[in-house]
């Protein structure tokens, strides 16, 4: 997974910023209609976001896969494979507030061109003043894949060894990827290389390494909180956000 980037269809996003570890809560406007109940008070304070947001994830240790297949005498093998992996989002900023590390800001205006802080209006209590950020909630990344693999087993006769048989595979399929709290279906491809050790004519144990990827790592994501208010246009009304992982 690469660095996260965010684009909006009608807002120029300058940077994505992380919540500070010592983020402080602020009382929300009780009359606001764009503050869902799940959103904590701390994300409504622009000064709580500082530093560029670079999410990191734990390796998938709870994943699994299984397959069925058919092997021909000439070494060609066809497989149907299913797998699941889950990559847990890390609390990289060591935020003390519960679940605060999951939120980040897509900032439309910074204090200066090279800064990592959101520009704040002079009168933050005035709803007519511009506020220059959206808040998006991150999540674990999970992927459930179904693949069709075409493999070739290097036969024992070719190697002069009756027990060990290396193999190569290439596969294509589809993955249901959940990222930033939204599911997406993506075209997937993979390559595998491994070795079989035959215990008998019909039983073998194997070990392999593989590379699995999706064709497109962009995701449409919902906005959790929309404090932006551009008095001069309707930019706040219907923005669609695309994230690239």
Automatic annotation (TrEMBL):
It comes from the Bacteria. Residues 44-235 form the Msp4/OMP-like domain. This is P44/Msp2 family outer membrane protein. Pfam families: Surface_Ag_2. The lineage of its organism: Bacteria, Pseudomonadati, Pseudomonadota, Alphaproteobacteria, Rickettsiales. Signal peptide: none annotated.
């Amino acid at each position: 997974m690469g660095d996260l980037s965010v684009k909006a269809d009608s807002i120029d996003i300058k940077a994505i910023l992380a919540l500070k570890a010592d983020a402080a809560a602020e009382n929300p406007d009780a009359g606001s209609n764009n503050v869902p109940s799940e959103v904590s008070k701390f994300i409504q304070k622009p000064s709580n976001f500082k530093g560029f947001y670079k999410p990191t994830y734990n390796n998938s240790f709870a994943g699994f896969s299984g397959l069925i297949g058919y092997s021909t005498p000439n070494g060609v093998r066809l497989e149907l494979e299913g797998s699941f992996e889950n990559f847990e989002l890390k609390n990289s900023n060591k935020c003390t507030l519960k679940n605060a590390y999951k939120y980040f800001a897509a900032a439309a205006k910074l204090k200066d061109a090279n800064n990592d802080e959101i520009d704040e209006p002079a009168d933050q209590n005035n709803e007519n003043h511009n506020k220059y950020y959206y808040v998006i909630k991150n999540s674990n990344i999970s992927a459930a894949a179904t693949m069709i693999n075409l493999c070739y087993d290097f036969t024992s006769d070719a190697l002069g060894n009756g027990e060990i048989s290396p193999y190569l595979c290439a596969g294509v399929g589809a993955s249901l990827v959940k990222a930033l709290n939204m599911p997406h279906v993506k075209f997937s491809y993979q390559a595998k290389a491994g070795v079989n050790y035959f215990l008998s004519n019909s039983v073998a144990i194997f070990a392999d390494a593989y590379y699995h990827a999706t064709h497109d790592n962009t995701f449409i994501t919902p906005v959790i909180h929309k404090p932006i208010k551009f008095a001069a246009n309707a930019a706040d009304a219907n923005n669609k956000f695309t994230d690239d992982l």
